[in-house]
Each structure stands twice: as C-alpha cells, then as structure tokens.
Amino acid sequence: MRKLLSILVLAIALFAIRIYPALADASSDTLAQGAKVFSANCAACHLNGTNVVAANKNLKAETLKQFGMYSEAAIINQVTNGKNAMPPFKGRLKEDEIQAVAAYVLAQADKGWTK
Question: What are the C-alpha distances in Å from 97 to residues 40, 79, 106?
C-alpha cells in the first residue's frame, strides 16, 4: 500500500511539472528578476501579455501553446535571437536575465496575466 501511495504521489508531481513547467524551476527571486527585466525591456510591446505589433501573437498561455512557444527554451530562443518585428536581446541582456524573463512570462501566462 505504501509503495502504491508513493507511486501515486510521484505521478501527480510529474504531471504538475508537465502542466506548469515554469513553476517547477522558478524561484520567487527568479520571478522577481524576470518581472523587473520584463518591465524595463518588454512591457512597451507586451504590456499585460498583449502584443501591440501583432495582436494575435500575444503572451497568453493558449497563444504560446498554439505557436509552440509554451516553454522556457522557446521563449529564451525568441528573446535571445528575436524574430520578425521582435529585436534580439542577445548582448543587451545577460543570460540569467533572459532565463528569468522566460520564467516570468510562463508564470504570468499560467496566471492569465493577473497580478
């Protein structure tokens, strides 16, 4: 019985990490750093998860999933290298700042961009 309970708890934990990847690794310090970086560098075009250039490519969870951007790796790549109207931030932001903003974007997307 104890072994079965352990397996069930492990399965639930793995499921939660799969559904909410940003919350699996992001500490409150990382999210605070990400919020600061986002506010200074991203909010002009992406205030509250919107996109003033291409409205259909906002930062809402369903949109990120639709366009294959619902992972830290995908967001890190986009922020680092840019794409279309979005400029690259490689060289302007440090690697840890880019990682923090990616974690912040996913966490906010999961919360529906509410405070």
Answer: 11, 10, 14
- Rounded Cα gap, residues 104 and 22, in angstroms: 8
Say whether pTM exceeds 0.85. Answer: no
- Paired tokens of 96: 């840890």
Task: Compute φ and ψ for 73, nearest 5 degrees.
Answer: -60, -45
Specify the 3-state DSSP secondary structure of 93: strand
Name the residue with tokens 């559904």.
19
Average pLDDT over residues 83-106: 96
The distance from CA 35 to its chain's CA centroid, rounded to whole angstroms, is 11
How big is the CA angle at 47 (ends 45 and 89), to the nearest 5 degrees? 45
